[in-house]
Amino acid sequence: MITQLTQEEVDILIDEARYGELDSLKEIFQQIDPKVLLSIHNDITLTTPFHMAAANGHTKVLDYLLSLIPKEEVKTVINKQNESGSTALHWSALNGHLEVVKLLCEKYDADPFIKNSAGHDAIYEAEMNNKEDVETYFLEKYSVEPENNHDDDTVEFNEGTEIQNATKDAVDSLSKDAEKVSIN
Description:
The protein folds into 2 domains: 7-145, Ankyrin repeat-containing domain (Serine Threonine Protein Phosphatase 5, Tetratricopeptide repeat, Alpha Horseshoe), CATH 1.25.40; 149-184. It is globular. It is built from 10 helices and no strands. By secondary structure, it is mostly helical. It has helices spanning 7-18, 22-31, 49-55, 59-67, 71-78, 88-94, 98-107, 122-128, 132-142, 162-183.
């Protein structure tokens, strides 16, 4: 079994994942020790085969590659960030590959809340790129929808952000002004 790859061999393996070449990858891993997957990435961008398969919607390729990784290592590998801090889940969400997103989250426990260098998590990437089915999946799975416990038009504020606090202050101020007008 081959345990070390040249950069050229790494690039070939990454390209095979990128283009969804499952049969080719199966042949490669008959000769190469799957443990190499723990450390291979593009030298410049730090992109892994997992990033490429996820970004291009190759669910079967991604599942196959992850099945080669020892169980205790999978979460580390699947949450590995590239040079811009993005994970495979960021890329699959950004490109709207719902089946890949489901595979990563449900079978491999990928973390959708990891933020990349721009401060975006995978949920934000789906939302900002109009990938509504992926966004809906995230919102339902992780219960990150805003809470509205009222049957009327009452607005509920939670502590935590400047915008929420500023909005509450503005509403309070308008309410006080409305009371003054009605009194006078």
